[in-house]
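Exam revision sheet. Question 4 asks you to relate a sequence to its structure. Input first:
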Amino acid sequence: MSETYLVRYVGGPLDGRVDTLDGAPEDPRSTVTHVHLHGGPKIVHHYDLEYALEYGCEYRVREA
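Answer key, structure tokens:
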């Protein structure tokens, strides 16, 4: 039985989002890109991996 792995997002439009995975990814991505399309110009946010532990990792929005 695998433990739940949590992926947390801090800042930007994904602030407070928590994704739950069945297990830890072999190699967590160092950057996650979020593209927001809302009928106007697209808005792109980049989230950088801040820490990875056995139970989860945290991505923080990159400051412009």
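Marking note for examiners. The chain has one domain: 5-61.
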